[in-house]
Design a protein that fits this description.
Length: about 250
């Protein structure tokens, strides 16, 4: 069990390092690392249940072995009878997850020297065009500044509730598509409960990522110190603006 948990810790740290190298914002890095762990645990578990009902049944064990939770599960199991014959999966999963972690670390090491410098913008990409279109229609500057300046500052570069709903709807569509398969009727109730738990987990991760992410970002950039020392905004007004942005995004 100690070996399995140490392996999971190493895997999660290397996943976090890789996402941190690829991200320029702390909130994005936090959410990206959590998303990788969610895919590797819950996502691969769902695939290992669904694949045996298809012609790709032989691939189910691969997703079991890639799941960091799989070797923890076998460490909790008393290997007797049929379980004893399968106990070799513990070592296989431990090795594959460990090698996967080294792949993450190698990719982060290779990419790090290429991403630390700012690069000149060649042209406006479709993501920037979409961001400009979204903010021009959904984040009017003057009404929000009149309501609370920090409220506007918090949401001016964010997609707000659109990002939250996109994640939840995409996850729900995937899980309900799996539930709609005729051969999975017997496993319908466990998968339905899993879908509920997955939606709640994504929502809680979003809450935790966004709760203080903007304040931390403004503190690192120096904007928060500037607001407190050079503007008439009080601490209560800044917190009120943070709450307004939080409510706009999640309610």
């Amino acid at each position: 069990m100690a070996l399995a948990l140490l392996n999971v810790f190493f895997f999660s740290q290397t996943a976090g390092l890789l996402v941190s190298v690829l991200s320029r914002k702390q909130s994005g890095a936090t959410f990206g690392a959590g998303l990788i762990l969610l895919i590797y645990t819950l996502g691969f578990y769902i695939l290992s249940i669904w694949l045996p009902t298809t012609r790709f049944a032989s691939w189910a064990f691969l997703f079991d072995w890639l799941n960091p939770e799989y070797c923890v599960h076998w460490a909790c199991t008393n290997p007797t009878g049929a379980f004893a014959r399968k106990f070799g999966h513990y070592w296989t999963s431990l090795l594959i997850v460990h090698l996967n972690a080294w792949v993450f670390l190698a990719l982060a090491s290779v990419w790090l020297p290429r991403c630390w410098q700012d690069k000149p913008k060649a042209k406006v990409r479709w993501r920037e065009q979409f961001r400009q279109w979204y903010h021009s229609g959904n984040i009017p500057r003057r009404p929000l500044l009149d309501k609370n300046p920090f409220f506007w500052l918090t949401i001016r570069n964010r997609f707000g509730s659109m990002k939250v709903w996109t994640l939840l709807i995409a996850l729900a569509c995937l899980l309900f598509w799996i539930l709609s398969r005729n051969k999975l009727r017997d496993a319908g109730i466990p998968l339905f409960i899993m879908a509920i738990l997955a939606n709640h987990l994504v929502l809680k991760m979003s809450f935790a990522s966004e709760a203080g992410g903007n304040l931390d970002e403004q503190r690192h950039s120096g904007a928060l110190e500037f607001l407190l020392s050079c503007t008439p905004l009080s601490v209560k007004e800044i917190i009120a603006g943070q709450w307004l942005a939080f409510r706009r995004q999640f309610l």
